[in-house]
Amino acid sequence: MKTSKLLLTGMIGLSASLYAQDNNLAMNGSFENVSGMVHNTGINCLTDSVTSSNNTTVDFFTKKSCSAEYSTPKNYMGTQDAKTGDNYAGIIAYYGDEAGVFKTRPGYQKYSEYIQLKLREPLTAGAVYMVSFNASLAEGSAYATSGLGVYFTNTKMDVKNNAFLNVTPNIVSTDIIKSNDWVTFTGAYVATGGERYLTLGCFQDYMDTIKVIAPNTNNSRKAYYYIDDVAMAPSLKTNDVQDVSMILYGNCYQLKNLNFETDKATILATSYDELNSLVHFLKTYPSVSVYIDGHTDKTGTEQHNDKLSEDRSVSVRDYLVKNGIRENRLKARGLGESQPIDTKHDDSFVNRRVEITVCAVK
């Protein structure tokens, strides 16, 4: 079984195995609690505590289905056994329109489905929670995509359109998942406090797609993923410094609210809250050393981008040192345009970023 590590856009990340569903804060994360027989698409009225976050339906597959299209292991999108139990869900992560089939529906490529799960209790501010889910690309898919991830909210989402959610996920995978076997995603989330809902789906800013079917074959235009065993549980207490530090090795999070003057390495004052949060993190875990990696888009020359990304990572390092972090714990690197998230657009904002990766734990 493949395991995909998640990029943490909000805070620290770590690897973990799945939690047992009886300890799961995500209610009905294995989709086993069902209130009726499955006849057609949609799980909103059938599965306990499961809804859609936007104006879409989410498929539900079960051995007890009245329709062969929504049965397991064989159904209208392929053949897959449940990861555990009898049931799983399915979502269209991406819907291509390269043939122009939907000329009467402009913008249909923006269609994407999201699963929303209610949490058993509100999350505690500052607590570390382990998050995991399983995804499998359905055999009937025409595309595979990256950008599968999770977003937390205090209140239930009910977006009135069927497009990609216009939010930044808390955890997200930048790997393109094209395996028809179950792939396990693992990560962690440090709560801001009061979160009651988890939304799982594809987030456009981190999405890259590839065609996975041969030319002149039946084209579903979908990147369709089966989803099972969505799990969440409290992890180590944040004051358990050494244990948390050891788990953090090799993981990274992205500074989402870090901004610089245009084409310069001067940090804008609006970024100080984000950097002060990083200062707090490094003071809480004094045994951790980190890489500070600057990235750019592809506008400008490669030489210019390498220097700009390095200068910006050095600016972040200098800010941390000024605020009490020892310089020997900080390794500034400029990676330029070499590691894009968005490979389709040269001027993509999402590629202009700074990432923090734990590179050593004493």
DSSP E strands, number: 20
Q: State the order of secondary-structure elements, H for helix, E for strand.
A: EEEEEEEEEEEEEEEEHEHEHEE
Report the portion of residues in β strands.
25-35%
Roughly what is the average pLDDT, rounded to an integer?
81
User: CATH architecture of the largest domain, please?
Assistant: Sandwich
Fraction of residues in helices?
Answer: 10-25%
| Biggest sheet details | 6 strands, mixed
N- and C-termini, Cα separation? 31 Å
Show unreliable segments.
1-5, 8-19
How would you summarize the topology of this molecule?
Elements: E1 2-5, E2 7-8, E3 50-52, E4 59-62, E5 74-75, E6 78-79, E7 87-95, E8 115-118, E9 128-137, E10 143-145, E11 148-153, E12 171-172, E13 183-190, E14 197-202, E15 209-211, E16 222-234, H1 241-248, E17 252-254, H2 272-284, E18 288-295, H3 302-322, E19 330-334, E20 353-361
Parallel strand pairs: 1-13, 18-19
Antiparallel strand pairs: 2-12, 3-8, 4-7, 5-6, 7-16, 8-14, 9-13, 9-16, 10-15, 11-12, 11-14, 17-20, 18-20
Structural summary, described in words:
- By secondary structure, the chain is mostly beta strands.
- The chain folds into 2 domains: 2-234, Jelly Rolls (Sandwich); 241-361, 2-Layer Sandwich (60s Ribosomal Protein L30, Chain: A), CATH 3.30.1330.
- 12% of the residues lie in helices and 29% in strands.
- The protein is built from 3 helices and 20 strands.
- The protein has helices at 241-248, 272-284, 302-322; strands at 2-5, 7-8, 50-52, 59-62, 74-75, 78-79, 87-95, 115-118, 128-137, 143-145, 148-153, 171-172, 183-190, 197-202, 209-211, 222-234, 252-254, 288-295, 330-334, 353-361.
- Strands 1-13-9-16-7-4 form a 6-stranded mixed sheet, with no helix packed on it. A 6-stranded antiparallel sheet has the order 2-12-11-14-8-3, with no helix packed on it.
- It is globular and about 65 Å long.
